[in-house]
Amino acid sequence: MTSGTIAEQIGAWCNRTELGDISEPMLRRTKLHIMDQIGAQVSCRTMPTVELAFDYARRHARDGKALLVGTDAGVDAEYAGFANGTAGSAFEIDDYGGNGAYSHPGCTVLPAVLAMAQEHGASGEDLLRGTALGFETIIRLARATMPSMFLGRGFHHTSALGAIGAAVGCGALLRLPPEVTANAISIAASQSAGTTEYAQSGGEVKRCHAGLAVAAAIRAVRLAQAGLTAPPTILEGSRGFFQAYCDTYDAAQMTNELGTRWFFLEHAAIKPYAACGLFHHHFAAYDDLLARHGFAPSDIESIELGCEPLMMIHNGAHGPAPKDIVGAQFSSQFSMGMHIVLGRNDVGAYLDQQAEGFANPEVIGIARRITTHERPEFGEFPPRGSVAITLRDGTTVEATGFALGSPENPLSEDDIRGKYLQLVSRDYGEDLAERSMDMMLSLELLPDAGELLRQFA
């Protein structure tokens, strides 16, 4: 094991790790998450908050080689990363860290590494290597800090952890000297920010948190390259990141088995639904009950959701009748009402509800019959959720579920491919969707990583 502080050990790991040192399952999973994130960026690029981010980049950035997704506009990497990271997290369809390692690797690491890859003319192999190491770092950060950072302090993992993980990915891409990557980690942590107050009172800034983390990461790497130094004990120090952001933490998670065990494989999750992942457990439990008992929405008298403690805080403020799209996607009651009545929680379903003013009487009627209660044991490994339904004839049925797409209930590779094709073919057609998917699944053969986005221009 390399000696030194956590940042120094990670810097050395990034510098010495070759593509062949990364396990084949880790490389394959990384490709699938790259594909999932590109699909999210492409499909969400015209949403209002994303258009705002693109307009901001066009107005303020210098010309550069990094493309705004879906355009031929080349701008500075920091601004392209901000805009594309915003696109990739704009509608709750991006990947996440499951099994308690709450985080969003795809929308933070990939936009940063890809923007820098375009700026530096890096290959697909370089991109794959840097993204894999960034993904692994995000999950290790989450294992070290969760749930305390989120549940106890209210920091948003996407932006708070994302800046650090994305800086690691960029440092690995560029194969920076270990001390430069260590400084970049420290500078990124000095910019880590973002709270989860959006889940209490709304607003669209949440959709920019990933982009803000990406911009911070690229800025950190550039400053480190310019010679700016920073505290090597930024993570574990007595006045460092962990103690500032967490009531409890486990710093050893950052370096235990580093380079030999890929925790990303144990936590990586891909969403089938455009909603907060914490109540995807309940969608799975409900689907199980429906398959076994075959009731109709009109048969339901009441529903009780058993929830891990974090969900009670993060998803408990909006109630059954949300006022905006963020509220709808974070309301377990409204989203479960959609699942029961419509059988859908995809992007189109939420946009349809927005067009109706979140006032669909059948959805609201079911949502008002849903209550939540805390089950502390559901926050233990592996996290889960329960659904208990009382039918109008007095029958009660109950099931516990694991989120579809999580490590305990994974999507198949065919399912992940299908999600990508559905997201991309809508605007670009099936042929380009298929070709782009094949390109990403053989990424190490691509001479120029910039081709990933050029095909969508």
Layout of helices and strands, plus pairs?
Elements: H1 6-16, H2 24-44, H3 48-60, E1 63-67, E2 74-75, H4 77-88, E3 96-97, H5 106-120, H6 124-145, H7 148-152, H8 157-173, H9 178-189, H10 198-201, H11 209-226, H12 241-245, H13 264-267, E4 268-269, H14 280-293, E5 300-307, H15 309-314, H16 325-330, H17 332-341, H18 347-355, H19 361-367, E6 370-374, E7 385-391, E8 396-401, H20 413-441, H21 451-454
Parallel strand pairs: 5-6
Antiparallel strand pairs: 1-2, 3-4, 5-7, 7-8
Helix pairs in contact: 1-8, 1-9, 2-4, 2-6, 2-20, 3-4, 4-5, 4-11, 5-6, 5-8, 5-11, 6-8, 8-9, 8-11, 9-11, 17-19
Number of helices: 21
Radius of gyration from the CA trace?
A: 21 Å
Q: State the order of secondary-structure elements, H for helix, E for strand.
A: HHHEEHEHHHHHHHHHEHEHHHHHEEEHH
Mean pLDDT rating: 96
Q: Could you say how many structural domains there are in total?
A: 2
Shape: globular
Q: Helical content, roughly?
A: 40-55%
Residue stretches low in confidence (pLDDT < 50, at least 5 long) are: none
What is the name of the CATH topology of the largest domain? 2-methylcitrate dehydratase PrpD
Derived from helix and strand composition plus strand pairing, the structural class reads alpha+beta
